[in-house]
Sequence to fold (972 residues):
Amino acid sequence: MTFEIPRETNPGKIIEVTIGATSDQGGTRSRSVTIGGSTALPFHFFEGLHPHRPVVAMEVFDKAPAKYPDSLREYYQDVLDKPGEMARRCVADFGAEMVSVRLEGTHPEKGGRSTEEAVEVVKDVLAAVEVPLIITGHSHFEKNNEVMKKVCEATAGENCLINYVETNNYKTIAAACLAYHHTLVAQTPIDVNLAKQLNILLTDINFPQDRLVMDPLTGALGYGLEYSYSIMERIRNEGLAGDRMLGFPMLITPGAECAKVKEARATEKDNPHWGDEKRRGAYWEIATAMSLLIAGADLLIMDHPQAVKVVRKQIAEMFHPNKEGGHGSLRA
Amino acid sequence: MRKAFKVEFLPFRSTHSFARGTNLLDAIRKAGLPLKSTCGGKGTCGECLVRIEGGEARIRTSAALPEEVRRLGYALACQTEIEEDLTVELPRFEEQSIRTVAGSRFFEEHRDRISGVFEVNPVVRKIQVSVPAATLSDNSSDLRRLQRQIHKEKGLRCLQAEHRVLKKLAAAVREKEGEVTAILVKTGPGWTLVDLQPNPPSKNLCGLACDIGTTTVVCEIADLEDGRVLSTTTGFNQQLRCGEDVISRIDYARRPGRLQELQTLAVQTINALAEKSCREAGISSDDIYYVSVAGNTTMTHLLLGLDPRFIREEPYIPTMNLVPMVKASDLGLNVNPEARVHCAPAVGSYVGGDITAGLLSTPILRDAEKTSLFIDAGTNGELVIGNRDWLATCACSAGPAFEGGGTKCGLPAIEGAIEAVTISKSGDLAYRVIGGGKPKGLCGSGLVDLLAGLFVHGYLDRSGKLDQERAGKRLVRNGEGTGFLVEKAPRSYWGRDLILTEKDITNLIRTKGAIFSACALLLKNIGLTFDQLDAVYIAGGFGQHLDVDNAIRIGLLPDLDREKFHYLGNTSLSGAYLVLLSEKNRELVNAIAGKMTYIELNAEPGYMNEYTGSLFLPHTDIGLFPSVKKFLRPGKRLDD
Fold:
């Protein structure tokens, strides 16, 4: 008698979203990235299809965050303030499949850089790498809207992933995305209903469903990861069950989340029993990222080059058609 | 330089003396007069608006008081200091009286449906008997002869007599050949003699029904001989100054002396309204021999001067659910000192006498076949589901948004409140004001209409955000944020713009969300779905009418056949009134309390999920609202 894995089939399918545009598609990227399309829970190859692998992006900054961990600075040193060069390093040396340009420096309380400067940074990165870009903003609505509008205009046709809008501030940025052909991140604070509500609001103003990615706002390991996990899993289950307003690919940001927690940053000198911070920082990010991949993450913005390496390898192995524990062995 | 000044407060005609420089809001509180203020005297809420009729005061400028309003003589009490003798007019909430859907009107409309309850057989009786004179061969005492005669002529067993009556007895039975008018109250198995009326006796035998709500209090006087409602008055609960909801009142009561203060405020509120009711009804307060109170558990505790502290501390236990009869004079109520006070019993800490009394005024208790839902959308929302054979109940903290609190433009359903609103596709706004004058604000029914109108015509997105472009000329932006202009300053009662702010909208959505999600959860708990309900009875301080269609459009009520809904208005008051009318009702209401199964929603893991799902227009899951869904098309307004 052979054991048969019980199978659940789902009526729904996660919407496929393509980010970045090649010259054929009206942009300048060497290739575009497609996420979503799953018809089963993550890595359940025996239950449905996963036509696209989860994608790992890395992040560069218009202004290096004041609290950027020392263990990460080592990898970039001189290029931390040169977003174009840093992006190139992320792609060429560390295998980033996309690059996120974080424009936190335009926040009036975090540098107050001008919109023009922000546009220059984005153009710089766009010229430096050929992968699709994510443009990451901040929570100061007024300034962020102004910056995002200009950046959308300056990168028209590139189909960047504009990260992000929230329930109290979505119209301006969504309109700019529509006008200049970009894809959008809808961010809501760890709640299934709130996530669905923002997606409804966006589709109510005719924002196309195949250009929408959700960020359910996740925490780092030790900072509510279990809760994040269960919310993501519920969102994915609803999406697969056929709720179109929850059937979007999900973006997570384990890099930024882990970079701010003490347990990942603290030095061994200060906490001898916690061990080497370089490895610990990477482990923390790996644990966070891998957990949330299982919960349904489709796109990850990460910081630690070692963590990126491990997570990409894990994804590749899971998707490998023949390898033990991979795609093939799990297929029913 | 004088150090003290006299301030006369209108319309109360009370004059008090205060030291130079006393803050006017403090002065008003010292004088024990009602005035709402929610910002704690910071000059930001604009609610303590008064008019300086005589004298000059030092008034600090404040963003909440527009210059043109100030020029008309208005001032914010909290921003005003007394520097000479003043005459100050306070808002006339206590003076305003409107008919609510209760009492007489309630019964004109619902007599058929609730027949069997509407009988006049109260626990207070006025009887005339002639007591035979004592003789040497009949040497029974005066009381014994009176008791015997009451039994002989009226068939009532009078077992006890109040000390106060005994003092009058000897003289009374010897005047007018022993003709006496006695007032009896049913206490336990027999009756107690509580009064002997002078000759000629008063023409009236009255009862006072009182709904004591967290936000508003309504008093109604009924003739106990034929059941007629003689007058109804509504006012704010004077405890409002000590906190807007029950939790803040319970916290307030924890400091020494504060419990007594809250008890006094409750009594003062009732006394002020009862006095006004008596005047309107043309009766004397001494004619009131029976008081029937219905209030939530906390209000009942505070009225009786019981410590409410353990209501809010786990495991949430009240002092008692079934309240023994007390004497009006023991509480300080300004009615006949011998009057008995009945408080409707509670089921638990968060399902109180307002609900047990409320249920009495619905047909639910008489129906064995159907399953009905009863929603009391007060500050503390309560729900009951069931029929004659079983009842389950739960509470939710809904907030006061539909009864005048928690929103900038909200009012209880009093004169001057907008009670109905229609908005045309082109944005023209029409409304109806209670009493017909200039509007002061909106009561619950008006807010429901306004919210639904704005939503249907695309002024709001589904999260309740205003579409600024669409709002056009009606868009208002000021220090408090963005809002929708309902009426311009010159056409409003207070001479300031009447605005529904985005914050108000958020509060309204939270309130309706709390009520709807509690309904959904209660049904789920019992294993029923909305469409299995045969009837939905709605109570609350919305006003005289509630547009069910609009209430469904905003997701306050479930999307069912409109015929299933019955808006009953203030059922707590109706229930208190029914208790006045008949002994059977009193026994029924006491029995209801013991029958209900109480479900604690806080312990439900699904609560937050249901709640956040409801914080949307009409709901995140549009499948629950098919009649609204058919209007919704992405990128289109509902009216397109």
User: Anything to note?
Assistant: The interface with chain B takes residues 167-168, 191-194, 196-197, 200-201, 203-206 of chain A (CB under 8 Å).
